[in-house]
Amino acid sequence: MIALFAILLLGSSDLCTEAAPLDARHRAPCTGILWPVSYTADALEAMKVTLPKCQVDLGAKTDELKVCDGTIIKVKRECEQTLNRFAQITKKAAHIERPWWDNNQLWGGAGFVSGVIVTVLIVSSAR
Residue 36's beta-bridge partner residues? Predict the structure, then answer.
């Protein structure tokens, strides 16, 4: 005898109201879904073994994510502190007064004037 179960579908009066064994040689007493016994065994295994294992794994992964989240927050704080220190250092460096001889405009102008003088001397000596 092949034992299959009719799965209930609620609604119409010709639908099954509960699971019942069905012999392969007989007509089904109601409309529904035939479900082999092996499917029932697989469903019970999934419910009793796979689902609890999955829930344990999910809890472990959630704990790992909490640790990672804490680490990320810590690293973010450290980066913000470093950026704040860098900003303070650059502000201080921008306000440092340099001596008169450490001036790019002065040396650029001196170079230009020197170049003009040397050019004039070379041109006048070539005549």
Answer: 4
Place of tokens 């209930």: 8
| pLDDT, tens digit, 9 for 90 and up, residues 4-63 | 343 333 334 577 777 777 787 888 888 777 778 888 888 888 888 888 999 999 999 988
d(CA 14, CA 8): 11
Whether this prediction's pTM lies above 0.70 is answered by no
19 sits in the region (left: phi over 0; alpha: psi -120 to 50; else beta) called beta
Would you state the structure tokens that stand for residue 80, as one six-digit string?
A: 């913000």
Runs of H (alpha helix) within 1-127? 37-45, 51-94, 104-126
A 10 A CB-CB count for 59 gives 10
pLDDT of residue 86: 92
**What distance in Å separates the CA atoms of residue 71 and residue 92, rounded to the nearest whole number?**
32
